Amino acid sequence: MAARCSIAFMIMASCLSVVVSGGIPGNLFALSVASKLRVDRNSTAGASSDFGRIVAAAPEAVLHPATPADIAELVRFSASSPSPFPVAPRGQGHSARGQSLAPGGVVVDMRALASRRGRVNVSAGAAPYVDAGGEQLWADVLRATLEHGLAPRVWTDYLRITM
Ligand SMILES: Cc1cc2nc3c(=O)[nH]c(=O)nc-3n(C[C@H](O)[C@H](O)[C@H](O)COP(=O)(O)OP(=O)(O)OC[C@H]3O[C@@H](n4cnc5c(N)ncnc54)[C@H](O)[C@@H]3O)c2cc1C
Fold this sequence. Notes:
Domain FAD-binding PCMH-type: 55-163
Helix content: 25-40%
Pfam families: FAD_binding_4
CATH class of the largest domain: Alpha Beta
Organism: Oryza glumipatula
Bound molecules: flavin-adenine dinucleotide
Radius of gyration: 19 Å
Order of helices and strands: HEEHEEHEEEEH
Strand content: 15-25%
Family: Belongs to the oxygen-dependent FAD-linked oxidoreductase family.
Keywords: FAD, Flavoprotein, Oxidoreductase, Signal
């Protein structure tokens, strides 16, 4: 039994890669987006892995943007820092190998933008198109287009992920 447990542990340890990195400058919390940053363990732990469960990497903070300008402020701040830190957008976190993680940096929870109205606009003219925010689920885009008797031609086979 003990031997079986240690073999299982060794397999898990070799599969799970844990990424650790630097950190964010303290003056990030002096920016106007500071009130939308969460640093509590629940928030950072929730953004430390993805659906693949292969890579684990904790961010130092999670941003819940109210507008795209909040994201721009964060990215500008990181880019102009002496040591830029990772910033990663996260939709539903269904990626397989840590693509939505920001080791030691800031994860932007794009779903926060979904509460804003008017982020899916369907143009049903002669050349129909949809203009939608990157936080929108394919399921919600489909719902909006169906109201016009239209549907996108190409799909993922699971619709509860972001565009
Ligand atoms: C077990 C498994 C099965 C899967 N099966 C399928 C399948 O059958 N069909 C299929 O199509 N896909 C499949 N996928 C892949 C998955 O659908 C994609 O990874 C998809 O991008 C996940 O969407 P998300 O909203 O969860 O994105 P996230 O995982 O949150 O992010 C994915 C990537 O996009 C970036 N990103 C997120 N939001 C934005 C934004 N607004 N602007 C710019 N970049 C952004 C992230 O930083 C990250 O790099 C599967 C994945 C897994 C783990």
